[in-house]
Amino acid sequence: MGKSSTAKDAQALFHSLRSAYAATPTTLKIIDLYVLYAVSTALIQVGYMAIVGSFPFNSFLSGVLSCAGTAVLAVCLRIQVNKENKEFKDLPPERAFADFVLCNLVLHLVIMNFLG
Amino acid sequence: MARNLGLLVVILSVTSICGGASIFTPISDAHRSAALELFAPTDGSFGSLEEAYEALRTLQILGVDKKPDIRSTTCTSVENTLWSPTSNSKDLFYALRVNTLLKCELNDEAFTAIASRLKDSVSDARSLLDYYHSVGSLSLIKDQTSEVDVLLGDADGVFRSIKALSQSDGRWRYSSSNPESSTYAAGIALEALAGVVSLASSEVDQYLIGTLKSDILKLFDSIEKYDDGAFYFDEKVLDARGEQGPLSATSAVVRGLTAFATATSGSLDLPGDKILGLAKFFLVGIPGNAKDLYYQIDALACLDNNRQVVAYVFHRVAIPLILSPPATVLSLTSEEKFKARVNTVLGRAAPPLSVKLMQVFSDGSKDASIIAQELKFDAENGIHVLDGLPKSVDVGNYVFVVEIVLHDPENKKLYATGGRIKVPIYVTGVIKVDSAEIAVLDSDHGSIETQRKLDLPGKNAVALSANHLQKLRLFFELTTPLGHAFKPHQAFLRLRHETKVEHIFVVGNSGKQFEIILDFLGLVEKFYYLSGRYDIQLTVGDAVMENSFLQPLGHVELDMPEPPEKATRPPPQPVDPYLRHGPKAEISHIFRVPEKRPPQELSFAFLGLVLLPLIGFLVGLLRLGVNLKNFPTSPIPATFAILFQFGIAAVLSLYGLFWLKLDLFTTLKALGFLGVFLMSVGHRTLSHLASTSAKLKSA
User: Fold this and answer.
1) Mean per-residue pLDDT for A9-36?
2) Any chain B CB within 8 A of the CB of A41?
3) Is any Cβ of chain A less than 8 angstroms from the Cβ of B596?
4) Angle between helices A57-81 and A26-52 (to 10 degrees)
5) Is A110 on the interface with B (CB under 8 A)?
6) Which parts of the chain span the membrane according to its record (chain B) (predicted)?
């Protein structure tokens, strides 16, 4: 009895989350997808390292940190672009996107240098 | 140590008896080959007429047949010099000297032309060298032709002018303005004065010649001497001709002396031993450069005047005779005889004479046996031979005192023989070693435990054993060929341990008997308490012993007590230098093992795997329904938008190139340009987009 209620609760929760998520604007969904992509790439790299060993450690680090870094920047962009966020009301989304592009370019320069 | 001491004693004794005993040999083929080497002409001629004269004169005196063929070039040079109106007296002097030797074809016209010039230069001369060159040239002309008038009118005046430059110690100055006096200058002054005397039209005042003779004697007061009997004149000052030394100064004086003695008819009364000493000075060795060789040979030729003696013109400086033994080491075993050669300095035969062995000094003792034995003359080889050595001559160092006795009493004035001549002789022989034995004795009673006879100097291999309470005794007798006792320079007994620690003992003697007793009880500390096998070696040697030997005798097993705690350790033995300094073992470098890399297929698999999320992202984007609706349509903003995308792509491809081959600095440079471009374009595009969306919002 308890088990089924918790299962039902979980399912209900899941559904409500899903419907709520559907309401988010497309731009934010794009950014979420991008974050997902970056994180999964990072995880695959960590799995590879676990198999073959960390020999060119700098390469491993640069790979993982580029994924992590770009994910973080994307999250920042999402925060700034989200209209429901009262803090960044006056910030035009183009400006945020410009920052995102610039920071990504700098990050990737550093990553390329560290790649070896 | 004992060896060094022995040698020192020997050296001291040899020098004490050999004060004055040394060997001089006359001119030999060594001088001839040196002359050929040093006087080789360069490119068919010598540098100057002076060098040509030196070379030709030296080769002529030495009798070298193979003369360099420089006659044509040198004769041309001589003729040019003689005919040239600008030649000074020095050039003419050397040209005439060369002509005397080469006998170039010159007629009397040439001589006449220069004779008057030379006479003028004699009267105008101011320095010693001017006088020397002009007077010398005139004498040379006189020798070469009798047609030309070269006699000096005012010979007395010239004589006085040259004499005015002399100093009180017998030396000469080069000119009145130069205060320094030189022995070389004295030599050439004498030669010039001899020339003046021979060129005088009326006889030179005898008083002047007499004062000059006393000057010469004063010069001889300053003569210096080496210990081996060589006399020389030293040159104290560097003059205008460059460095002069004792060789050139002595050579000049000898030339001047002999020229002067020939020119004047009176005798000079120079002591014969000093003339002989000067000859010995010139016979010491062969100089290394051409000029010194010329000085040496020229001076020797003057001393050994080779010219035909005309009846009433005597050569008044005595001709030195040199006695030289061909061998100074005589062996009693092969019964070698004492021989001596007597020659003039240039190696010519001496007049009839005999050599007498007067005394024989032995090894440091002052008294000698008087012998007075005459040596037989072997006319075939030109050598004097002593038949059989004196009875008292045994093995050792001796000084033979010989005397040269001239057969013709007239020759006594003509030749300088040097009185008593000391010749150092080494007489070697075979030393007999007898009654050799080695024994191990008990220390208490001296009773013999083991005894072995030794065959010296043959091979031996005895095996003894002893402990520290016993003694080792070695005994042998040494006898000379004549049966006397003999004390060698070296008589050592050496014991060497297996660890290469060795001990050396001197074997003492009383008369013929040599004995050494090693008392091991007292030597225990010296031997560092090392027990074990000691190799025995005996060394007996001397310079006059023909059968010196260094023989291993065998070995002795020594039993030493245990070393106490404070005992000295044996000194570390020298390491074989090849072990310490030789090549070491090769080090093979171990390179860092490269890391294990995964197989390529795995890497490619994961490459594919990593690209999957990208594909998933793109698929997701399509699912979300992304569109390019907001892309600006009007041309200018569109271009900027395209340029923006293009700029980002360019930056990313620059990063790709950076990873592949560029370095950071080029990348940053390029990035700078691209970044500026991207910023401007991006700003334009995004501001346009912002304004568009703002318009939409407000609208």
Assistant:
1) 89
2) yes
3) yes
4) 170
5) no
6) 602-626, 638-658, 664-681
Helix axes A93-115, B635-660, angle to 10 degrees: 20
CA dihedral B249, B250, B251, B257 (to 10 degrees): 110
Element (H, E) at A2: helix A2-22
Q: Report pLDDT digits (tens) over B266-316.
A: 666 777 788 888 888 888 888 888 888 888 888 888 887 644 333 334 456
Could you tell me which of B349, B399, B342 has the C-alpha nearest to residue B369? B399
CB distance from B602 to chain A under 8 Å?
A: yes
With a cut of 80, say whether residue B365 has pLDDT above it.
no
Average of pLDDT values for B333-338?
84
Q: Which of A30, A40, A109 sits opposite B624 (nearest CB)?
A: A30
Q: Which residues contact B292 (CB under 8 A, 6 or more apart)?
A: B247, B248
- Nearest residue in A to B615, CA atom: A37
DSSP secondary structure, B188-217, as one string: HHHHHHHHHHHHBSSPPPHHHHHHHHHHHH
Burial class (CB in 10 A: 0-12, 13-18, 19+), B607: exposed
* H or E stretch covering B324: strand B319-324
Give pLDDT, residue B493. Answer: 92
Show the tokens assigned to B377.
């003359």
Identify the helix (H) or strand (E) that includes residue B99.
Answer: helix B89-102
How many Cβ atoms sit within 10 Å of the Cβ of residue A59?
Answer: 15
Which residues from chain A sit within 8 angstroms of residue B693, using beta carbons?
93-94
Cα B643 to Cα B632: distance, rounded to the nearest angstrom: 12
pLDDT at B8 over 70: no
Mean pLDDT of chain B: 82
pLDDT at res. B397: 85
Burial (CB count within 10 angstroms: exposed 0-12, middle 13-18, buried 19+), residue B530: middle
Dist. CA B368–CA A26, nearest whole Å: 140
Instruction: Give the 3-state secondary structure of residue B543.
Output: coil
* Among candidate residues B660, B606, B653, the one with its CA nearest the CA of residue A113: B660
Does any CB of chain B come closer than 8 Å to the CB of residue A51? yes
Residue B329 has pLDDT above 70, yes or no: yes
Tokens of B695: 């318009």
Tokens standing for A38? 């970056």
Q: B19-36 burial, b if ≥16 CB within 10 A, otherwise e?
A: eebbebbbbeeebbebbb
Residue (of B267, B244, B252, B236) closest to B191 by Cα position: B252
What is the DSSP secondary-structure string of B407-443? SSTTHHHHEE--SEEEEEEEEEBPPEEEEEEEEEEET
Examine residue B564 and say whether the peptide bond preceding it is cis (omega within 30 degrees of 0).
Answer: no
* Region B230-251 average pLDDT: 76
SS3 B564: coil
pLDDT band at residue B265, thresholds of 50, 70 and 90?
A: low
Looking at residue A68, what is its pLDDT? 96
Percent of chain B whose pLDDT exceeds 90: 9
- DSSP of B573-629, one letter per residue? PPPPHHHHHSPPPPPPP-PPPPPPPPPHHHHHHHHHHHHHHHHHHHHHHHHHT---T
CA distance linking residue B311 with residue B662, whole number of Å: 110
The per-residue DSSP string of B348-408 comes to: PBPPSEEEEEEEEEETT-S-EEEEEEEPEEETTTTEEE-SS--TT--SEEEEEEEEEEESS
Partner-chain residue, chosen from B610, B621, B626, that has the shortest CB–CB distance to A45: B610
Confidence check on the interface: ipTM exceeds 0.85, yes or no? yes
